[in-house]
Amino acid sequence: MPAIVQAGSKTSAAETQLDSSKVQQFIDRLKAKVESTQSTFILEAGLDPNGQHPNQVLLELRDKITKQVFFSYYVPADQVAKAAESENPVGLILQNKA
Fold first, then answer.
1. Helix axes of 20-37 and 89-97: crossing angle, nearest 10 degrees
2. In which order are the strands placed within the sheet that holds 41-47?
3. Which domain CATH number covers 53?
């Protein structure tokens, strides 16, 4: 799980963000979990290559057969970490976004 920074501590913004390699591990774990539990869905996820959404992950959930996109949006990397550890990752992501 990501480190928690106490309010008022003297840490820079960069230190509060998750390392990109760690985020990629969470993304891989989340994708594997969705694939194993939600066989009709495909989850695509990745960090923003342009840097316009720092420390956020673009998630796209779509149907395997029709390729219909159910959602596509950026979420904070720490939510991806939480979802990767949860029993219902898609539900947690949707609940946090709603």
1. 120
2. 41-47, 56-63, 69-76
3. 3.30.160
Of the candidate ranges 2-11, 28-37, 76-85, the one whose mean pLDDT is the lowest: 2-11
- Domain carrying residue 65: 18-97
Provide the b/e sequence for 34-60 (b: ≥16 CB within 10 Å).
beeeeeeebbebebeeeeeeebbbebe
Reported pTM? 0.72
Q: Which helix (H) or strand (E) holds 97?
A: helix 89-97
For residue 44, the one-letter residue type is E
Residues comprising the chain, all counted: 98
